[in-house]
Amino acid sequence: MEIFKLIAEVGFPIAGAIVAGFFVFTTVKFILSGVTNSINGLKGIIMSLNNRVQTMNNDLVKMDSLISYAFHVKPNVERIAANEGKEDARKD
Protein backbone atom coordinates (compact mmCIF):
# COMPACT_ATOMS: atom_id res chain seq x y z
CA MET A 1 0.00 0.00 0.00
CA GLU A 2 2.91 2.36 0.60
CA ILE A 3 3.89 2.16 -3.07
CA PHE A 4 0.46 3.54 -4.00
CA LYS A 5 0.91 6.38 -1.47
CA LEU A 6 4.30 7.19 -3.03
CA ILE A 7 2.79 7.20 -6.53
CA ALA A 8 -0.06 9.42 -5.34
CA GLU A 9 2.32 11.90 -3.67
CA VAL A 10 5.10 12.25 -6.27
CA GLY A 11 3.57 10.84 -9.44
CA PHE A 12 4.21 7.70 -11.43
CA PRO A 13 7.31 8.89 -13.39
CA ILE A 14 9.19 9.95 -10.26
CA ALA A 15 8.22 6.77 -8.37
CA GLY A 16 9.30 4.69 -11.38
CA ALA A 17 12.63 6.53 -11.50
CA ILE A 18 13.21 5.84 -7.79
CA VAL A 19 12.50 2.12 -8.24
CA ALA A 20 14.72 1.98 -11.36
CA GLY A 21 17.51 3.79 -9.48
CA PHE A 22 17.30 1.27 -6.64
CA PHE A 23 17.45 -1.59 -9.15
CA VAL A 24 20.53 -0.09 -10.85
CA PHE A 25 22.19 0.52 -7.46
CA THR A 26 21.58 -3.10 -6.40
CA THR A 27 22.87 -4.46 -9.71
CA VAL A 28 26.05 -2.35 -9.63
CA LYS A 29 26.67 -3.29 -6.00
CA PHE A 30 26.39 -7.00 -6.89
CA ILE A 31 28.74 -6.68 -9.87
CA LEU A 32 31.33 -4.66 -7.95
CA SER A 33 31.39 -7.15 -5.08
CA GLY A 34 32.24 -9.91 -7.56
CA VAL A 35 34.93 -7.81 -9.19
CA THR A 36 36.40 -6.90 -5.79
CA ASN A 37 36.67 -10.57 -4.83
CA SER A 38 38.41 -11.34 -8.13
CA ILE A 39 40.84 -8.47 -7.67
CA ASN A 40 41.72 -9.61 -4.14
CA GLY A 41 42.38 -13.11 -5.46
CA LEU A 42 44.65 -11.79 -8.20
CA LYS A 43 46.42 -9.58 -5.68
CA GLY A 44 47.27 -12.66 -3.59
CA ILE A 45 48.57 -14.49 -6.65
CA ILE A 46 50.73 -11.54 -7.68
CA MET A 47 52.15 -11.15 -4.18
CA SER A 48 53.12 -14.83 -4.06
CA LEU A 49 54.75 -14.60 -7.51
CA ASN A 50 56.68 -11.51 -6.41
CA ASN A 51 57.88 -13.41 -3.35
CA ARG A 52 59.09 -16.27 -5.57
CA VAL A 53 60.96 -13.83 -7.83
CA GLN A 54 62.67 -12.24 -4.83
CA THR A 55 63.65 -15.67 -3.52
CA MET A 56 65.06 -16.70 -6.89
CA ASN A 57 66.97 -13.42 -7.15
CA ASN A 58 68.49 -13.98 -3.70
CA ASP A 59 69.48 -17.52 -4.68
CA LEU A 60 71.12 -16.29 -7.90
CA VAL A 61 73.16 -13.69 -6.03
CA LYS A 62 74.19 -16.30 -3.47
CA MET A 63 75.27 -18.73 -6.19
CA ASP A 64 77.12 -15.94 -8.02
CA SER A 65 79.01 -15.08 -4.83
CA LEU A 66 79.88 -18.72 -4.11
CA ILE A 67 81.09 -19.34 -7.66
CA SER A 68 83.15 -16.15 -7.61
CA TYR A 69 84.73 -17.27 -4.35
CA ALA A 70 85.39 -20.79 -5.67
CA PHE A 71 87.12 -19.50 -8.83
CA HIS A 72 88.95 -16.69 -6.99
CA VAL A 73 87.22 -14.04 -9.10
CA LYS A 74 86.06 -10.69 -7.77
CA PRO A 75 82.27 -10.89 -7.15
CA ASN A 76 79.89 -8.57 -8.97
CA VAL A 77 79.38 -5.95 -6.25
CA GLU A 78 76.76 -4.04 -8.23
CA ARG A 79 74.56 -7.11 -8.43
CA ILE A 80 74.90 -7.78 -4.71
CA ALA A 81 74.05 -4.16 -3.91
CA ALA A 82 71.09 -4.24 -6.28
CA ASN A 83 69.77 -7.33 -4.55
CA GLU A 84 69.50 -5.31 -1.36
CA GLY A 85 67.01 -2.97 -3.01
CA LYS A 86 69.20 -0.14 -4.26
CA GLU A 87 68.37 -0.75 -7.94
CA ASP A 88 67.04 -3.50 -10.18
CA ALA A 89 69.36 -6.52 -10.29
CA ARG A 90 68.11 -7.72 -13.67
CA LYS A 91 69.95 -6.62 -16.78
CA ASP A 92 67.27 -7.32 -19.37
Question: What would you note in describing this structure?
Answer:
This protein is mostly helical. The chain has one domain. 82% of the residues lie in helices and 0% in strands. It contains 3 helices and no strands. Helix 1 crosses helix 2. The longest helix is centred in the middle third of the chain and has 59 residues, at 12-70. The protein is rod-shaped and about 95 Å long. The termini are far apart. The mean pLDDT is 86.
Distance from first to last alpha carbon = 70 Å
β-sheet strand percentage: under 5%
Q: How many individual β-strands? A: 0
Which of globular, elongated, flat, extended, rod-shaped describes the shape?
A: rod-shaped
User: What gyration radius follows from the Cα positions, in whole Å?
Assistant: 30 Å
Assembly state of the chains shown? single chain
Summarize the main sheet: none
Number of helices: 3
The helix fraction, in percent, is over 70%
Number of domains: 1
User: Low-confidence parts, pLDDT < 50 over ≥5 residues?
Assistant: none
SSE class: mainly alpha
Mean pLDDT: 86
Secondary-structure element series:
HHH
Key features of this structure:
92 residues, mainly alpha, 3 helices, 82% helix, 0% strand, rod-shaped
